[in-house]
Batch of 2 targets.
Target 1
Amino acid sequence: MPTCRLLCLLLPALLAALELPTDAQLDPALTIAGRGELRALAGLPRLGIEARVEMADGQVRRLAGHQRLRWTNPGPGARSDLCLRLIPNGEPFKGASLAIANLSVDGQPASSRMESAGTALLVDLPRPLAPGAAVEVACAFTCTPSAQGHHGLCRSSTAGATFYYWHPEPAGMVDGRWITAIPQDYGDASATTSFHAQVQLDLPPGLAAVTGGSAVSAPLPDGGSRLTIAAPFTRNLCLVLDPGWQHQDRTVDGTTVRAWVGPDDAAPGTRMVEAAAGSLQRFAAAFGSYPWSELDVVVAPLGDGAGGMESTGLVVIDGSLVRMARYVPPGDGPDTFPAFMLESVTAHEVAHEWWYSLVGSDAVSEPWVDESLTNWTGSWYLEQRGTPTPYGLVLMEFMISGRPLGAMDRPLAAFRTQEEYGGIVYARGALAWQALRREVGDQAFLGLLAEWQRRHRHQVADGTALRTLIGERLGPAVAERFATRWIDGTGLTMAEVSKAAAGGPLRP
Ligand SMILES: [Zn+2]
């Protein structure tokens, strides 16, 4: 077919024409301080994407486009391949897929091999890439969501769609090894490097989008709209598509915090925006600045027992939590159960902006690194807000899950059930950090977390680095005891877990 031939010949030229984001294009998505960081971190991967949302039978059918990635080898060694993650191909996504075509490296057709059950694509580089040298990898892609997705991610229905992991993302790396862990039925699948993206996204008529980063919308001749999205320092760029929401805004230290809910949910929307703004302010002051100019909190169906989901600059809250909080009077504190759930999940997801987005980690192989810390941080926000027993409720979660006392440091696949995973990593994990805080006092404990953030900001860190830092900051005896009992679960007793949740003064 001549047309096809012509298209195939033209494709490399079209891909090369895709713009990579410049600092000036990324600036609107950053605070003033964030723009300074951008100038200092020029070597992070840069990604240009053009894509369009396609409809069929009244719902989103797929998201198709092409991307151009410029990747600079951070070293220390030379590299002979580059890893892109195709996470929606994982079995937990229940039939969703991410297909690629026309793969090229520096404008030439490239060979590749698939690993990790179709979720990791290793692209061969024509020659070893020296530390500090850059390569460009381009491809076309098509992301097809399924009815449920995984925890509501990569799903589509007549009520809207949520796209997460929707384009080939540059994999994270620890100690020179690509992170290629296979997504599991429960837990997150995130393990990317931090990258800068600029996306041109065409939406059909009648569909609105809330996105990570900062988006500017312009009308298209067909009645649809074209979004130009700037997304610096991103781990995953999430797109939530819906016929329409209402939003409520707050401003915190140069960042606009925006909650997006349906027309019946103004009261829970107020609670969400205030919990997000309050937790953002507190976490930034304690752990390190939030560099982005926006934080969106948006309601969408997640299901599978997930209350919320984090992504860079955007968190999703499951619709069931929002509906449950409709009848709690707006001025009431977080002491009633629906209000507590909505605020604690919102604060938890906002805490992930530090423990997942700023400090990246391998959520499949070492989920305790971000989730235990995130669950403590969300509970700490509620404590600071005056909730009488936030850790008591975490203890209750631990008891309900069957009081599992085994090791926290293991991959998702090594937990027998979702309840065991939740009980050990989320509930006991939060209480582990609370026990450490009670032992060493607020100053030393918060100093530890701030240093964890500072040392690994915009990088990927592993559990060994976290254990090492605890030893450096709090001394070998404290670190050894914490690691043995709380991380490895050796000799830990129910009495110790209960004691961690109790009130009473901390060591000064
Ligand atoms: Zn989490």
Target 2
Amino acid sequence: MNKIAFDPGHYKGANRVGDYCEGDTMLLFGHALKRAYNIFLTRETGDNLTLKQRAVKAKDCDTLISLHTNWPAEATGIIVFYSVQRPEDKAIAEKIGRELSRATGLQFRRAVTRSFKSDPGTDYYGIIRESVEQGIKHMFIVEHGSHLEFAADTEAKIRACVEAYGRLFDMGARYYIVGNCDMPVVRKGSKGDAVKVLQQKLNEAGFNCGVADGIFGAKTNKAARAYQKVCGLVQDGIVGAKTWAALLNVHVVTLDPAVLKASLVSGVAGNLVKIFPNFINANFFSGSKTIGWLASGGRILSERDNHRKWMGLYDKPKGTFVVHKNGSVSVGWRTDKDMDDMRGNIQFCCQGFNLLPLDLKKEGFSASEVGRACNAVTIGYDGSRAVIAVQRGASAAVSARTMQKLGCKSAIRLDSGGSANLFVDRKGIFKTSRTLTNVIYW
Ligand SMILES: [Zn+2]
């Protein structure tokens, strides 16, 4: 049994305001937590459990956190309830409130207990009472803002809260998948909304289906097969779970930039994973040599000056991710001179091409070659966390949009294509048989 349990409040369809539904959103929130960490969920479906059932399910955990948003509309901001019988939990409740506030930008209103007026020693809220009864050490009800506040940018808010809980309870690497894959199988002759989504996504990825009309014809069939080819999938034009996952899923890892490290290596991913349980390939250009700047632990591992004549790209500005020795992060175009000037202040760096903004010509690349859809490994910065995203069949433009959607203000794409790798906890999310010359690990 895991130490921390989360209880997605209410049930399917509960507490609707416009398009927003607290019961459904809190379940999505719970699933996002479960994908990211080793936690226990009291409910994984829309079922309406009693408060007692929830507490009984979580009884072997140390901590239970019930996930909610608040109503009425005036009830804005974050409120954390703790048990009247556990006054020592006030400090934890305040820490939760402050961290969630920092993550979401919503106001932290208070950490508070509520008991019956007629019986001040007994908790008012059933889930807290039942949890105390089950012997759960710490129990909190968290209102993550009002329904209306949480209805705006819900996906980003969930992500920010998931990360905040990770920091609060030191739950380690944050890996999760963004995107909904609950789509029907479609193929030549299919018609409807799913085909329309397919056509839009294929067009965005640079595989032309023509107008997204919802009719799976010859042009869509050709585009789907071409897309399956770049993703390494069976080229049958049948768009099922794997093709949908490739089109819609983004694999995301977020971490403290301070934990990023890099290493020059020589080996295939399957062997490297024995040394590096969590890594992506850092290759700036595939091939036998590392061409970009790469630094780790304050040491420069590689610089482009070593390859001065390489294809005339020397001293063109390149998308560069730098963690400085004082812990600050900067991401954007850097020439070799820029890099040389800051040499003594680089803790970690890696290079690729810049995504926000995207201008391949400026970097000396041909857009058709480097910008084409392929498996993409990207790293960005959202103001506090490094965001690593791996996506199949993504053009440079799609990569840029993905990083923006993930809240990044700046990002670069590392060389990827046929050498794209992502390993999390020694599990190959993406793997390749190519020999890698370098990795970024954490
Ligand atoms: Zn609620």
